[in-house]
Design goal:
mainly alpha, about 70% helix
Length: about 70
């Protein structure tokens, strides 16, 4: 097993700060992905591509429909 994957009894302050920084960066990237794959940005992009009202409605329904699963 790789040494840095082994569990430890305690962690240093440097490791805590590094982990929190990674967590914040991950959260920011997730939020950006969420904005670009749904909502107003997706509708505007679909309109730019010439999508019909029916297509835009289907795109808007994908998010809530997948939450049922």
């Amino acid at each position: 097993m790789i040494n840095w994957l082994k569990s430890q009894e305690t962690i240093t302050e440097k490791q805590v700060k590094s982990g929190l920084r990674s967590l914040v960066i991950d959260g920011m990237c997730s939020q950006v992905m969420g904005v670009f794959t749904g909502g107003a940005f997706l509708v505007a992009f679909a309109l730019l591509l010439g999508a019909s009202n029916k297509t835009i409605g289907l795109l808007a329904a994908i998010g809530p429909a997948t939450q049922i699963l």
